[in-house]
Structures are given as C-alpha cells and as structure tokens.
Design brief:
5-stranded mixed β-sheet, globular, mainly beta, 8% helix
C-alpha cells in the first residue's frame, strides 16, 4: 500500500452476491446484481429493506447454466423524474433488457436496438454503468483486456425519458447525442475497464474501474487492481486513486451524508458482496489533477 492508495472501509456483508449497479435514493442504497432479477434496497449500514422483482421467470441454480441466461444487470441510475432504470450489459443477445421502475410498477425496456447499434462500433460491447449528467443520460462501457472500449455514450435525457413513457419502451440509436472515448491507461500492465459511475456535481463523474486479467467480458479473470477516479464531461481523467483492498468494485453511489458507497463482486456465487465506503472528501476538487 502507498500513501496515495484509497482505503475503503468495510461496512457490511450484503445478502446478495454479484452486486453491480448501486444508487443512493432518499437516504437508502438501491442495488442490482448481475446474476439476479431483483432490485434490492438497504440502509447505509447494509440492513436489508426489501426487494422488487424486475423480470418474470426463474434462473437456474447451477452457476454455469445461470451465467448463460441471466439478464446481466450491470447499471442502475436514478432519473430526474424519480424513477429508476436498470440496464443489462449487452455483452450477449440475452443481455439487452432493461427495467424501468416507477414506485412498485416495473416495465421491461427493450435495449436491443440501441445496443446492437453500439456493438457495431466496438469489438465487444459491455455496458457497465449509467448516470445522469446535465442534459444527458450517460452510459459507461467497459474495456476488458484487448476487447471493448471505455466510452461515455451520451443519450439525450429528455428524449430518453419520453421513450420510457411508452407502454412498450425501447431505447434506440436515435437517442445517442455523441460518444466519448475514455483513456484509463492500465495498472501493472493490465488495462483498466470502467465498471460504474455516479454524477459528482453537474460536470464530473465519479467512476470505478477494474484491471481484470481476461480479454472476454463474459469470462471472469483475476483482478490485478481497482481504482476510483473522476472524469470530466469530455471523458478526461481528472483524478485516479487505487483502492485497498483489491476488490472488483462494480457499483458506486454518492450519498448526501458525506460518503461514497461501493459494492464489489467476487465472481463467485458462494461469496456475498461487501458494502464499502470512503469519505467523499477524498475527491475534493482541489485534489483533481489533469
């Protein structure tokens, strides 16, 4: 550990595995897992507060069979109208579903038209995070080894909200305003890939990233390092700090209580996900370095 490492405080062990997208909503934490089909709510101390079913049907218990058919929910975002949007990764055809949550009402969202268009411009699409920044819904895509790209896909927020009001909502390429490349470099020779993001003010994004030793976004590999950092609206890295312990941070959220919250995925269905936190002051603007 070095003096620049960011030490994450362990808060609790959650009652789910493979925690991925995370948001802070009215004093509580809301999470999705990439191998499940529910939305889970927790106190900031990790106490379970209930779940919401997002999709019908059941997933196989066998880990290999489950991996083949899971919706792979990787991104979760609070929208300005108070609703939530959970998104699959798009890394396989069956992973192009989303869920729009308004109170107790859940509507399935067809993301295939958008994801199919995005996939044509990268070697392997992998949507890992989402956040609202200004007039855009920003999707974060992840590079995994030699494949994929770290990018900010900026959708027009107003048009996206309107599309979600349809009885059968669909996200399409027509919503894309622009696409911004993000250069995260590597850690110890392994490329870093974006895993989530949360708006930090009106013009910057707090991001998480992992250096995973695999070239396939579907096949897991050992994690060489993980970082938290800050991006500006043009995708420039303003700050980056390696986190300790080395965990595959897959979800980050900024609370109104002065903390950054994070969840990690051990890529093992037998290992529950930890809830972690670090002071928001760790990323004060005065510490940003271009």
């Amino acid at each position: 550990m070095t003096t620049d490492d960011l030490v994450l405080e362990h808060v609790a062990v959650l009652d789910i595995c493979a925690a991925s997208g995370l948001v802070f909503e009215r004093g509580t934490l809301v999470c999705v897992a990439d191998d499940g089909m529910t939305l889970a709510r927790y106190s900031t101390f990790g106490t379970p507060l209930g779940t919401t079913r997002l999709f019908s049907g059941e997933l196989p218990r066998d880990p290999i069979a489950r991996k083949q058919v899971k919706p792979d929910l990787e991104a979760l975002v609070c929208l300005p109208d108070g609703s939530l949007l959970a998104l699959g990764s798009g890394s396989k055809p069956g992973r192009s579903r989303g869920a729009h949550i308004v109170g107790d009402i859940v509507t399935v969202v067809d993301c295939a038209p958008l994801f199919d268009a995005l996939a044509r411009s990268t070697t392997r699409l992998n949507v890992e995070g989402a956040t609202v920044l200004g007039d855009h819904l920003v999707l974060l895509t992840r590079r995994t080894g030699k494949n994929g790209d770290n990018r900010m896909i900026r959708l027009r927020l107003g048009d996206t909200l309107a599309a979600l009001q349809s009885p059968t909502p669909s996200l399409t390429a027509a919503l894309v305003d622009d696409i911004v490349a993000v250069d995260l470099d590597d850690t110890d020779g392994t490329p870093l890939g974006l895993t989530d993001g949360a708006a930090l003010g009106d013009t910057t994004i707090l991001f998480s990233a992992a250096a995973e030793t695999t070239d396939d976004p579907v096949l897991d590999g050992p994690v060489a390092a993980a970082v938290l950092g800050v991006l500006d609206h043009d995708g420039h890295v303003l700050a980056r700090r390696r986190v300790v312990p080395t965990l595959k941070i897959e979800g980050v959220a900024i609370g109104d209580d002065g903390w950054i919250y994070a969840v990690a995925d051990a890529d093992d269905p037998r290992v529950p996900s930890p809830l972690l936190r670090v002071p928001l002051a760790s990323f004060q603007r005065s510490n940003f370095a271009r």
